[in-house]
Amino acid sequence: MEDNRGYDREEIFSKKVKAGKRTYFFDVKSTRANDFYITITESKRRVNGDSFTYEKHKIFLYKEDFFKFANALNEAVDHVKNDLMPEVDFAQFEQEDTENEVNDELKWE
């Protein structure tokens, strides 16, 4: 895989998360110096007449920011779940995701 400067960047790990009309990709990649970073890509399918395109947004996350990023994300999610929407049973979304993952795996077998 090449970056925007033409350098090869090896993909080490990839996780795809389908979320309605969006798909998120969490990819671990390596640098030429054998360092690692994560890219988080949001991809949205857009219909243009008879065809479609994908709109993509990408975040590059470097190792020195992993801890701060994960903590801030968890804090924001906890705030929504516990303070803003305590009446919502978020476990229902976890079950829905598990069922979708199993169904997706069965489609590919």
Question: What topology emerges from the helices and strands here?
Answer:
Blueprint (H helix, E strand, L loop, with lengths): L10 E9 L2 E9 L5 E13 L2 E12 L3 H19 L6 H18 L1
Antiparallel strand pairs: 1-2, 2-3, 3-4
Family: Belongs to the PUR DNA-binding protein family.
Protein name: PUR family DNA/RNA-binding protein
Organism: Algoriphagus jejuensis
Question: Would you give an account of this structure?
Answer:
By secondary structure, this protein is of the alpha+beta class. It has one domain: Nuclear Transport Factor 2, Chain: A, CATH 3.10.450.700. Helix content is 34%, strand content 39%. The chain is built from 2 helices and 4 strands; from the N terminus they run ββββαα. It has helices at residues 66-84, 91-108; strands at 11-19, 22-30, 36-48, 51-62. It has a 4-stranded antiparallel β-sheet, with no helix packed on it. A hairpin with a 2-residue loop joins strand 3 and strand 4 (51-62). The protein is flat, with a radius of gyration of 17 Å. The two termini are 27 Å apart.
